[in-house]
């Protein structure tokens, strides 16, 4: 589920942060000067702001002044020539102080000043003061990109001591500000570089320091700071603190700012707080946008509150905002995860009708939803639809379909989809390979499964614990438990942490092989490894004991399971019911059913079927009917097996009217009548001398190519011979030869 959740790439919070990132380094708005704002008193506690210091550099000597004059004059007069050539005579006398003095003389010519600074950098490292000066000149000249690069080059130096370097850099930048630039954008650029470098503590210190000088960082830079705080798993409190404190000094939050906070609340599962903030936005002069509403709608969906989400969609539309694909996909994803895929598809159709195009994410979500329901036909139909609309599927889309085909046992289709995926240039990952491997393991094609395993390893894709679990499960089901155990040891050697599914698959293999003692030993081993058995573990062991006729041991396992606080599943009860019924312990089976009902556990059709089958075998149709009526009274829907059991039971008891009614009802519901039920109906009608009904069923069986018992063929051959219909007799003889004699010959071969 995590994989498909991450696949929802329409995350507008990510888009928002990306937009902030694009805004801040290039064209940062001027800082907000709040020197005359009354809000500053609430923040600083003082009515006075500190003035920027005057710049007072070291004074040059007469000799230094002459050298500086010569260099300044030379580069101005010969600016078309390379600096490395015209300044070669001065290199031996040049010192870092000369750089600053020359810059004072040429500061009005930005390009010349930048070239001279670059020349100095190639020969000697400039001082931090010189770097701050050229940064100030660049910002004042409108070259923000160069200014950012100059700050970034310093800040990304290896082995930089961040805390001490921050203090020095901030001090030099403030010291050079008044006389070299006086353009407040320089501080936003520095703030942005700090945030981008994840030096959030230093960024906040810079913000507070600048407040003392009467300036506030621009809204876009502040938003970028909020977005980075929100990415920190432990940054929520710092984020909320900044959001509350920054307006006190004059930061006016905009819609982007609120959206960042709303997203953080939703990610922290504080949906009500996020919704309250949405309601407060307009009161504070900010209009919520599509991102604001969609983020909270997604939050409500993830919290399982669909009605709140739908209500918010209505409010959003009332506000004149049009839901987009992200808004709809949040609802579609929730419905799919809840198993309501039909409703999810209706939402997509409604979305398209409202002029919102469905994208790859929406289609993939629905495809995976139908896949989870086992409806791979509908999933594939959606896949074809998205291709017809030129919506390109991706690895996740293909993997969802491959999983669906594998789970349905359609390995040819899964293989074709895998080949198509590779032809289109998509690289399968461990999830794709694991799905195919699991499919082939379930199909008993272990050679193909291991071939795929070797292929993924050769491509550098590491099999995970799920891959190995699929392989071990396949080996166990094919009876090769020893190889499964070897695989278990290989997983340990590779450092993979075995999970409960791995142990359960091998434990199931031991049980199927009749090695219950080894299975019990494996359960002890897994507990020693810190992995505790679940209801599947106990149910598997109980099933093995039931099949061995050891009901007391199965009952003891149930007691142990309950003592551990594990809830038995419906499968657990089915296993016990089968155990009692197969041993003819019908009284115990009925007591189990009564106990389930007393505990409020609603049995499924399979549990009732086990009990009804045994009573039918004993020709006790009164008890069978009582169980069937109880089943219907409790709202349990009969399945195909239920009808086939009842039809055969009533036929055996010669209750042909009831058997025929059940047959008709079964066909109307679309269930398949088994061959044994058809044969039972023919025999029952013949025994009741109702030849026309028997012949009707017999002909229906022939049309549907359902195998008829040989003795029934013999009866109809004799019957039709007496009627003198030789053509039909010859046809019947051909069928007998084909269905029985030919098949028998094949078996003998």
Automatic annotation (TrEMBL):
It comes from Punica granatum (Pomegranate). PROSITE patterns: IQ, PPR. PPR repeats lie at residues 254-288, 289-323, 324-358, 359-393, 394-428, 429-463, 464-498, 499-533, 534-568, 569-603, 604-638, 639-673, 674-708. The lineage of its organism: Eukaryota, Viridiplantae, Streptophyta, Embryophyta, Tracheophyta. Belongs to the PPR family. P subfamily. Pfam families: PPR, PPR_1, PPR_2. It comes from the Eukaryota. Keywords: Repeat. Gene3D superfamilies: Tetratricopeptide repeat domain. This is Pentatricopeptide repeat-containing protein At1g05670, mitochondrial. SUPFAM superfamilies: TPR-like (SSF48452). Signal peptide: none annotated.
